[in-house]
C-alpha cells in the first residue's frame, strides 16, 4: 500500500470516532459526568502520545530551536483561531450535552471547531507514516478517544435544535473524510522533507494538540469531574505509556 494511502487510512480510522460518538449521542443518553470521564482519560492518553511519539521523535531530527519554535507556533496558531471561533458559539463544543448550546447555526460552527481540533492530529499522522516515524497504537487510540465526547455531546445539542440524522451523518462523516485528506496532505507534502523541516512540522502539530487539550478538553472535563479529572487523566497517561511499552 502506498504510504500516502496508508496515512489517509489511519487518519480516517482515528476520526471515525466522530461517527461513533454521534451515533451514541443520537440513540443513548449519557450523564454529563460519563462524557467528562471519557474526555479526561482521552486527555491523558493524548498528552502521552504527543510527548513520546511527536516531540520525542522530533528531538532526534532537529535541535531545540526548531522544536521550541514549532511547538510554540502551533500552540499560538490554535489559540488564535480558537479564540476567533469561540465568538461563533463553539467555546464549549466538547461540553456535555446538558450544557451544549443548541442554536440553529451551531452545526457549521461545531464543524469548524472540530476541523480545527483534528487538523494537527491528522497532519501528524500523515507525517509519521510517510517518514517512517513511530505511529503507535497509543497515538491512534488517543485521537480516537478524544473525538468521541465531542461528537457525542454536540450531536445531542444539535438534535434538540432540530437537526436530523442525515445532517449528523453528513457533518461527522465529512469531518472524518477531511481528517483522512489532511493525513494524506501531511504524508505527501512533508513526508519527504529534510529532517529539521519534518521536526518543525511535527512540533507545530504537537503544539496545536497541546493547546487544544488545555483550552478545550481539560476545562470541559474539569467542569463535570472537578478534582477527579487529574486522576483520570493520569490513568489515561499511564495507559498510553503501557501500550507503547508493549509495542516495543
From TrEMBL:
Keywords on record: Membrane, Transmembrane, Transmembrane helix
Origin species: Cellvibrio fibrivorans
Protein's UniProt name: ZIP family zinc transporter
Transmembrane segments: 7-28, 34-52, 64-85, 123-146, 167-190, 196-216, 228-246
